[in-house]
């Protein structure tokens, strides 16, 4: 779906409220989510959210566009991994993900200001929010933690509308991979899960080799 340069929007979400920024509304339009729709970073009723977003867009005459979703500082988690060896990185990352209070997570590691950090968001929230906007014919360009953007430009905290001038940075530090920035951003599994699957398959293969060796050795002794 093609959009003109004017068809760009940013949706900033923080806890139970959001702010919609567009070129025609650069100061932003606030949106408060009822507790029966969104509560504690969890979507309670997706059908109600769809209806709520549809009416909000219609009321404010917001047209379909390339949408950059920015996750407020209170909606994501982060961990400094500077100095952690590549050998320990996977285990340290998994330990951190295990304590995150979400069933599924969306995570990515970035190097910002010479420091390595892993940023984590609620995958279910990001996925369902994206699907709601895609149903309204928006194209999701990026999903980016605001805390990461603040590391790069602390002044954004007092000047949220300035996000409209930072689209390149928002996309560069998106939690979505470049291959996933499309209408189906959540189909691909994380690289961490892929490595776990590979390790499991290797373990099964080794066990089968051991079992086969034992069987052959036993057969040899019997004969």
Write up what this structure looks like:
The protein has 223 residues and is α+β, with helices and mostly antiparallel strands. It folds into 2 domains: 8-187, Nucleotidyltransferase, domain 5 (2-Layer Sandwich); 189-223. The protein contains 6 helices and 10 strands; from the N terminus they run βββββαββαββαβααα. The protein has helices spanning 46-59, 86-98, 123-135, 146-152, 167-172, 191-222; strands at 8-14, 17-22, 29-32, 38-39, 42-43, 66-71, 76-80, 105-112, 115-122, 139-145. The strands form 3 sheets. The protein has a 5-stranded mixed sheet with strand order 3-2-1-6-10. The chain has a 3-stranded antiparallel sheet with strand order 7-9-8, with helices on both faces. The chain has a two-stranded antiparallel ribbon with strand order 4-5. β4 (38-39) and β5 (42-43) form a beta hairpin. Residues 1-5, 179-185 and 187-194 have low confidence and may be disordered.
Properties at a glance:
223 residues; alpha+beta; Nucleotidyltransferase, domain 5; five-stranded mixed sheet; three-stranded antiparallel sheet; membrane; transmembrane
């Amino acid at each position: 779906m093609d959009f003109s340069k004017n068809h760009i929007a940013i949706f900033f979400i923080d806890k139970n409220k959001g702010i919609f920024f567009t070129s025609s509304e650069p100061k932003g339009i606030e949106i408060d989510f009822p507790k029966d729709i969104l509560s504690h970073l969890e979507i309670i009723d997706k059908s109600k959210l769809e209806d709520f977003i549809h009416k909000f867009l219609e009321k404010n005459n917001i047209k379909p566009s390339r949408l950059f979703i920015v996750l407020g500082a209170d909606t994501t988690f982060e961990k400094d991994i500077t100095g952690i060896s590549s050998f320990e990185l996977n285990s340290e990352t998994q330990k951190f993900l295990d304590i995150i209070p979400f069933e599924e997570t969306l995570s990515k590691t970035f190097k910002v200001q010479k420091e390595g950090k892993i940023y984590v968001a609620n995958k279910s929230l990001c996925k369902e929010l994206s699907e709601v906007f895609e149903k309204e014919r928006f194209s999701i360009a990026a999903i980016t933690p605001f805390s990461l953007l603040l590391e790069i430009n602390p002044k954004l905290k007092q000047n949220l509308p300035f996000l409209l001038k930072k689209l390149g940075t928002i996309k560069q530090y998106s939690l979505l991979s470049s291959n996933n920035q499309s209408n189906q951003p959540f189909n691909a599994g994380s690289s961490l899960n892929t490595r776990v699957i590979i390790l499991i398959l290797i373990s099964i293969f080794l066990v089968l080799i051991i079992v086969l060796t034992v069987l052959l050795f036993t057969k040899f002794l019997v004969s």
